[in-house]
Amino acid sequence: MQYQRLIKKGEKLRVTVEEDGSGATAVSVASGGYLKRVNQKILLIIFLSFLFCCYIFSFSSFSLLGAFSRESVGFGPYEPFIAPLCSGISNGTICCDRNGFRSDICIMKGDVRTHSASSSVFLFTSLKNKSKIPEKMKPYTRKWETSVMETVQELNLVYRDDNSSLSVFFSTGGYTGNVYHEFNDGIIPFSITSQHFNKKVVFVIVEYHRWWVMKYGDIVSQLSDYPPVDFSSDNRTHCFKESIVGLKIHDELTVDPSLMLGNKTILDFRNVLDRAYWPRIRGLIQDEAANKTGKRFQELGLKKPKLVILSRNGSRELLNENLLVGLAEDIGFFVEVLRPDKTTELAKIYRCLNSSDVMIGVHGAAMTHLLFLKPRTVFIQIIPIGTEWAAETYYGEPAKKLRLKYIGYKIKPNESSLYDEYGKDDPIIRDPKSFTRKGWDYTKKMYLERQNVKLDLKRFRKPLSRAYDFSIKRIGPVYSSY
């Protein structure tokens, strides 16, 4: 027996469809206390009349079909942006969209409960017309990389027969520990996936790391009103009415507005960072004022654009960094050398870069901090030989989307330490593509791990002077900073 409820002039109309043993179908219509039994031909007439009415009303401001669709609330209009194949799924359903190159996304709608002991997320439902095929899911955003995906915990998404918050499941495993991957594979994707829930969402973390939560807690708090859940260690059963398993990712360090509700961009993500770190920055400023330890430019009598050099140790080290500082000061910059490590508080790095006019660094994961620069500031990326594609793809293009003034400085062979080691005629120097086309491992071992840079300062003066002129025009005749 199947029921449908229609609203008609404030009156409830019940249509009951019955099938007897002979296969004949009948309809019982009850309104108030009135009951009429009709034969199959009248059923057909009623059905066609109903379709005609829906067609007519679809052109008016009130639509029966629209009313039905509005009865199902939840992810609603966000589903096409998260998992297009799962748009408008009904209650009691698990739906997975595996069409993305970078990540899979599953949506679970109904009575969702965690069971960490079995690495499972259960969907309890009494609906009998579902195939109830379980799904398996690794909630990490690099599904094309078999080697790293083998290290990510797999979740079982299972129907069970038989709260009120939403949840997003994701992993902080994989390449977590590298700042580029922490932002690109994790933080930006979980912002993309969850920002439209207005903080009414719980993050359930697979392969939970306490240090990660401490490091990025300020950002997490801008996207959720609730503490994150450690899926593996928290043996309690957590209940949700809807869940997303996996994260949506667009491209390298970016947000594609065409795939976002409200056409949000990477600049909107940067606004999240602003809200996350400014309360802490204000506290740092107040502490410095109280202790008289702050180096405010105006107190020093300086009205100069600020240039920050992101310093590296080990591979891709800038061997004549001190001379670069002197050159920049001669041109007219106030120079600060930033040497962050894994223990450096992100709010302090954000404060330093957010107040700068120019950032310089040699290609590497630390360039991810370009996200901390204000729009229309200058980002100069020093590009060692053999790293051109990666430098432009991972940082050059994202910088332009952030509306930075991007300058890519490709070093000459004689500016590389490999030149002294191998000589100008070696294929490593003369034809880097012959090595990089062999794969990432060759590129990494030769051009990332064994190469340092010694800038030709006469040649580098030109882009540095361009950055100075651009900064002066942007900030105007009077410069102020916090």
Automatic annotation (TrEMBL):
Ranges annotated as spanning the membrane: 42-68
GO MF annotation: an example: pentosyltransferase activity
A Pfam match: Glyco_transf_61
Any GO CC annotation of this UniProt entry: Golgi membrane
Topology term for the membrane: Single-pass type II membrane protein
UniProt cross-references to InterPro entries, sorted A to Z: Glyco_transf_61_cat, Glycosyltransferase_61
Keywords: Glycoprotein, Glycosyltransferase, Membrane, Transferase, Transmembrane, Transmembrane helix
Subcellular location: Golgi apparatus membrane
Name of protein: Glycosyltransferase 61 catalytic domain-containing protein
Domain Glycosyltransferase 61 catalytic: 288-380
Top-level division of the source organism's lineage: Eukaryota
